[in-house]
Amino acid sequence: MSTPDVPAGVPVGPIDSSTTPRYAGPATFARLPRRDQVERVDVAVLGVPFDTGVSYRPGARFGPTAVREASRLLRPYNPAQEVAPFARQQVADCGDVAVNPFDITEALQTIDDAVSELLAEGAKPVTIGGDHTIALPLLRAVARRHGPVALLHFDAHLDTWDTYFGAPTTHGTPFRRAVEEGLLDQSALTHIGIRGPLYGAEDLIADAKLGFGIVSTVDVADRGVPEIVAGVRERVGDRPLYVSVDIDVLDPAHAPGTGTPEAGGLTSRELLAIVRGLAGLNLVGADVVEVAPAYDHAEITAVAASHTAYELVSLMAPR
Ligand SMILES: N=C(N)NCCCC(=O)O
Ligand SMILES: [Zn+2]
Ligand SMILES: [Zn+2]
């Protein structure tokens, strides 16, 4: 299937599903063109098939492929944000970063280099993981370009722990490393969806010391999405914002295909509604991580992740 000829400057959109069946041909995110099929890229959807940083179930290395497959059904107009996300900006699938699964330090450098190159071209990265370790090199690249960024982190887990087995670079530690490295604006850090057992009460104290505020899953249920969104918008203001979505923020009923599931999570409806509520903020990059398709059923998790990525891409569209 070829990409239709379009005048220079007009974004190349997805393959038309009314003339080419959406289940035909190799999958790119939302059936968008590949990087090599377009002249420029405003939003770069990038896969990072890496899961060497996990503490429990492996398999997030297959996340990018699963999310692309599940994204075939996405359509070009997003009524919830009243925007056509592929029409006013060039969105392209930049493929997968070829990361070394046996050397975490080298893998992180490879990811940083790939994203730095896209940022230098003026593209905003929307990265599909991969385990949550990859947020660290993504933030390194983004902070090098924008300075310390505000962070909105959707997750069941804090991911601000110090080490596992003495290892500093894991999927449970990226945001502590990011604070230590000065990548984050400590006055605008929020976790949303936190729940589940911790190692000790001191986990919360250490996390607060780094500057994080916590909106727990119970807070979302008790206070409701509009109030949560208002609080986040107020905290972020006009700072450059990075959004990191660990799909395990969703209840295992909404996202069984993940490595460290915790009961009592958000619904996909709540997650999508909060993400949509960020419209107009200065979003400079985002990721959706921790999709492990071997534990998925009927693409439940991959569909949720693909829709989350679609909302994030929509947020980046000029209005
Ligand atoms: N980032 C994710 N998904 N999980 C972190 C869990 C770390 C732990 O095993 O305590
Ligand atoms: Zn998590
Ligand atoms: Zn996480």
Automatic annotation (TrEMBL):
Signal peptide: none annotated. SUPFAM superfamilies: Arginase/deacetylase. Its EC number is 3.5.3.11. GO terms for molecular function: agmatinase activity. Keywords: Hydrolase, Metal-binding. Residues 1-26 are annotated as: Disordered. Gene3D superfamilies: Ureohydrolase domain. Belongs to the arginase family. Agmatinase subfamily. This is Agmatinase. It comes from Streptacidiphilus monticola.
